[in-house]
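Quality-control log, excerpt.
Job 1 of 2 completed; input and output follow.
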Amino acid sequence: MSDVVSVGGHLWRIQCYPRGYHGHGDDKGEYLSIFLAHMSSTTTSAKAILDVFLMDKDGKPSVKDEIRFLHTFKCSQVRQSSGWPQFVKWTTPEKDYLAEGHITIVCAIMVTDDSPIPVPPSDIGTHLGSLLDCADGTDVTFIIDGETFHAHRALLAARSPVFRAELFGSMAEATMPCITLHEIAPATFKVMLRFMYNDALPGEEELGDSSIEMFENLLAAADRYALDRLKLICAQKLWDKVSVDTVSTVLACAETNNCPELKNKCIDFFVVEENFKEAMFTDSYALLVLKFPSVIA
């Protein structure tokens, strides 16, 4: 028998009888028997799937002797079991699956959610995003390079401690209905603002061919406004695009905007000799040396 394992809030045990289960008729020990036993003493029933297959002599899963069952285990019945008294005839494992004196049986237990009332996924991001689109109730306006963005002070303050200090603190912006921002591009602010409302980024097809530059700018904006989740999302997006041609630029971005997670990944990439030999001949590496000599060291 296997150890007791916990799956889906219930305890389970795999019962395996190499020469058959003694309580099943008169099979003369010709069959391998496998059962799933419910070991929990709970007040809820559990609907479980048991998936079983054998590994062949080459260590690969066999699809020939693979079987699955779905069974509902009642809450009032502890140690009840269900499975296959005659999973496979014993001559078959000896012939096809015996390797170095043993066979390997793989069992997967899955507990399904049998809730009678389905609950839809959260749609708060969709509703808040539509609030941004229609501009109902907006009470602050941002102007960037001639472009105007309407927003809600309370939402921005809830999402960013920097905006909270600016819009509800003692700073001049707290009393200004219209705020002009510098050092951020309109396209970057638009994506950041959308993220603050619906907690999601647009698809890369919407970001255009310069998506690496956009993610670098977004990471800088996220650092400036203390949007930690957005910052790490941008870091992961940039890391996904790292190559010998881009690693120096991405590393400079990580160092500039205090992102140690991305910085360490880039340094790990650099220390691979083949990568370093190629990256050191790029223009971006030369700029990295001039701007951050301590990083290169």
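Job 2 of 2 completed; input and output follow.
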Amino acid sequence: MAEDKECHSVVDDSAEEVPSKRIIKFNPPLYKQRYQFVKNLVEQHQPQKVADLGCGDVSLLSILKYLKCVKELVGVDINEGRLKWNGSRLSPCVGDHLDPRELDLVITLYHGSVLEKDCRLLGFDLVTCIELIEHFDSEDLARFPEVVFGYMSPAMIVISTPNSDFNSLFPLSVFRDSDHKFEWSRVQFQTWALDVANRYSYSVEFTGVGEPPAEAEDVGYCTQIGVFRKKAKTTESDVLEHPGERVYEVVYTTSYPSLQQINYRRRVVVYLVYREVNKMRLRYQVSLRQHELEPESTDPGNPRRKFISGLPVHTPTEADKAMAMTPQPFCIGDKFYVPLKRIIAYPRLGYLCGNVQELRELLADSIELNCDASAVKVDLYHCSDYC
């Protein structure tokens, strides 16, 4: 139902067999402009739970899964085979495991009609209906608002549909897709949308994508879009008032690795600690070669030497000032030590760990610490230094 395949013979692609009017092409293609519109909206409003009704080949979901704010994505479509065929497009790849997301992400595809009520679609921040409503007959169109606006009642709803005013520019004066039951003018769509918004306590703004040619601006956008916002915020008690019926069938579900999961957070922390410690170790070697090491005390029997970075002097930033307040790395014999209090001062590691004790726990069994577990302990020289 979602589609992007609006009659490619009149929109986006060439149609040499119909030479009567100039073919209108959009760059980017019209379906990409619709998806980009939704992507921009998500980036602006930061919804965490997003559902795409009539998700089709899951193209929109495959774009939204990369947005950091999103924690749950749901797609609903009547075509079960299409969902099963395209579900793998939403699976995590190797890169998702190597560089986990900040937040958890769960993606679920449901087989079912968007005109049925399912309690798993309650409490969403955004529901999208991209090129969907024009596939409804009059009876289904009458049921649609009660299900989406009345029952689901998300904070925001985006509905796009063809603008029939634009059709006069196409080679044939027909519907853009053979499955369309209607195509509305701007006045017809806005009349319907304002009525629905008024009935269910939403506001609505109108816009679109697919600008007309310079000589035909009066026809408006090729795709018209209504952005609905709920006037009163939905509370948890409002969601619980609805019956808990589940009518959709789960066709596909997956979850993404994230830094909220302890195993992935540990892996990232260990990697970052190894990286920072190795940088300091190599700088220490440079300082040794430049004879920039000084005794930490006048006692010749004290083998502990302090760390001098040998880096050019520059105007210190706030981060530099904070780092200067932490214990310095040092060397005893052929072992190099970096205090955990210095490691936790790196902003990224401080964000991931919170405090030294949590850092110590995450490093346990992965990186060697000194006897009192206050510093990372590594060999000053590695065989890799000579490769």
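Post-run check on job 2. Residues 255 and 334 are 45 Å apart (CA to CA).
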